[in-house]
Amino acid sequence: xxxxxxxxxxxxxxxxxxxxxxxxxxxxxxxxxxxxxxxxxxxxxxxxxxxxxxxxxxxxxxxxxxxxxxxxxxxxxx
Length: 78
Hints:
- With 78 residues, this protein is an alpha+beta fold.
- The protein contains 2 helices and 5 strands.
- The chain has helices at residues 24-39, 72-77; strands at 2-9, 15-21, 50-53, 56-59, 63-69.
- The protein starts with a strand and ends with a helix.
């Protein structure tokens, strides 16, 4: 089972946790909601700039999505 952890990354190196999601679609929905909070509720982006690397994806140079395997013991802790 995989989980998707989303961080908001600022230009100056600050990080903030957006959330941990069970599917990539839910992670992207979380990013959309975070963008609306950050840019304003009328913000709508139909296409995102993406940079994919080994184990993570950077979206719009502001959001970092990390896919990780979730084993049974860790799942119980969550």
